[in-house]
């Protein structure tokens, strides 16, 4: 049984259905990326799981127990980091974490040990005596993450934790989340920055206008987006004395091949879109690309680079949302 089970969740705000029949599961030791544009219903779903709101219909089970019916039992198992987290300005990092450790009921040596271990894990030890107001956004966000770990929850719910972080801080966050999953924690993380989640998550749930459009392993979602969507190749030539005429020749050869869709000439390269029938597999796409390259080489076209643009989570998102979301 998965640690977290969300079943047919619905949340209405007046006539607005913010969350509409959302169902997914999250196992211990895995990271689920919750992806969707602004207003999709991510925060509302997360707040319900975190016991801060109640659903209009549906159920959330944590360790088999309903968080809606018995929120007090669920809370010790949950670490929730909202999208706007506050840190108090006139306290040090250590004081801030110690304050929340007290709020979680930790006492004496056990409290000190726990605060120290969380500071160690989140790399905050050198900043122990710094005022939280003097920290960078990335560091403040570590303090906020540290706060959610103090009571050693089984489930982490992190609402857009990577928002506004620089690339280095994002990589560090990714490593922290992976370490937490390796410790056996289940992590639910939301973002509208799709590419960053691809590297962090094991599975993804794509939500739009309150509805889940797709759930599954990141690799499967990518495969799904490639199916029937075609693939894009970039071809560069060693033109030599032949000059641009080499590209004209290449274009003629390309256009004679099957499955070729749009072809565009750009300075120093040719872009070719291969169109495959719905249901085509990745292997079939690779074979079509290989045939095209063989045809060019056989025709004596001096190909020096031939690259296949890998579709990413953004493409998967655009495919499942059918481009309804910009
Ligand atoms: N308390 C509330 N009262 C009325 N409407 C609300 C309330 N909370 C959220 N909504 C609405 O519900 C919808 C979903 O909002 P939600 O914050 O869950 O989206 P989100 O996917 O988290 O977006 P964002 O990335 O902008 O936080 C939005 O249309 C929002 O305006």
Secondary-structure element sequence? EEEHEEHEHHHEHEHEEHEHEEHEH
The CATH topology annotation of the largest domain reads as: Rossmann fold
Based on CA atoms alone, the radius of gyration comes out at 25 Å
Identify every distinct bound molecule in the structure, by name, code or SMILES.
adenosine-5'-triphosphate
Helical proportion, percent range: 25-40%
CATH superfamily of the largest domain: P-loop containing nucleotide triphosphate hydrolases
| Spans of at least 5 consecutive residues with low confidence | none
What is the CATH architecture descriptor of the largest domain?
3-Layer(aba) Sandwich
Give the overall pLDDT as a whole number.
88
Count of separate DSSP helical elements: 11
- Strand content bin: 25-35%
Which structural class matches the secondary elements? alpha/beta
From the N-terminal CA to the C-terminal CA, the straight-line distance is 37 Å
Largest sheet: 6 strands, mixed
The CATH class of the largest domain turns out to be Alpha Beta
What is the count of distinct domains? 2
Shape: elongated
| Overall strand count | 14
Task: Give, in spatial order, the strands making up the sheet with the most strands.
Answer: 6-7-8-3-9-10
Give a verbal description of the structure.
By secondary structure, this protein is α/β, with parallel strands linked by helices. The chain folds into 2 domains: 4-87 and 135-215, P-loop containing nucleotide triphosphate hydrolases (Rossmann fold); 230-310, Alpha-Beta Plaits (2-Layer Sandwich). Helix content is 36%, strand content 27%. The protein contains 11 helices and 14 strands. The chain has helices at 42-49, 71-74, 93-103, 108-121, 137-149, 167-182, 194-200, 218-226, 245-255, 282-298, 313-320; strands at residues 4-13, 16-26, 31-35, 57-62, 65-66, 78-81, 155-158, 186-191, 203-208, 211-217, 231-237, 260-266, 269-274, 303-308. The strands form 3 sheets. A 6-stranded mixed β-sheet has the order 6-7-8-3-9-10, with helices on both faces. α3 (93-103) crosses α4 (108-121) and α8 crosses α11 (313-320). The longest helix has 17 residues, at 282-298. The model has no long low-confidence stretch (mean pLDDT 88). The structure holds adenosine-5'-triphosphate (ATP).
């Amino acid at each position: 049984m998965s640690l977290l089970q969300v079943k047919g969740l619905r949340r209405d705000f007046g006539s607005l259905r913010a969350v509409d029949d959302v169902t997914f599961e999250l196992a211990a030791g895995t990271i689920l990326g919750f992806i969707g544009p602004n207003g999709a219903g991510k925060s509302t779903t997360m707040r319900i799981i975190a016991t801060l709101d109640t659903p209009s219909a549906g159920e959330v089970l944590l360790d088999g127990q309903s968080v809606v019916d018995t929120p007090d039992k669920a809370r010790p198992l949950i670490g929730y980091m909202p999208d706007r987290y506050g840190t108090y300005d006139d306290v040090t990092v250590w004081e801030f974490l110690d304050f929340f450790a007290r709020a979680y009921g930790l006492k004496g040596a056990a409290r000190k040990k726990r605060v120290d271990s969380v500071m160690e894990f989140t790399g905050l030890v050198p900043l122990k005596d710094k005022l939280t107001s003097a920290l960078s956004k990335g560091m403040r966000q570590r303090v906020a993450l540290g706060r959610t770990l103090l009571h050693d929850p089984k489930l982490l719910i992190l609402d857009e934790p990577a928002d506004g972080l620089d690339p280095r801080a994002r990589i560090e966050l990714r490593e922290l989340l992976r370490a937490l999953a390796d410790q056996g924690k289940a992590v639910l993380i939301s973002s509208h920055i799709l590419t960053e989640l691809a590297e962090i998550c094991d599975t993804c749930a794509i939500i739009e206008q309150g509805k889940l459009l797709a759930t599954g392993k990141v690799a499967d979602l990518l495969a799904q987006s490639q199916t029937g969507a075609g693939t894009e190749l970039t071809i560069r030539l060693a033109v030599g004395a032949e000059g641009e005429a080499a590209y004209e020749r290449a274009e003629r050869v390309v256009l004679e091949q099957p499955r070729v869709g749009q072809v565009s000439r750009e300075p120093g390269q040719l872009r070719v879109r291969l169109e495959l029938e719905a249901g085509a597999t990745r292997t079939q796409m690779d074979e079509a690309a290989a045939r095209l390259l063989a045809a060019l080489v056989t025709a004596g076209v001096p190909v020096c680079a031939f690259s296949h643009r890998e579709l990413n989570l953004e493409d998967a998102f655009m495919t499942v949302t059918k481009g309804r979301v910009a």
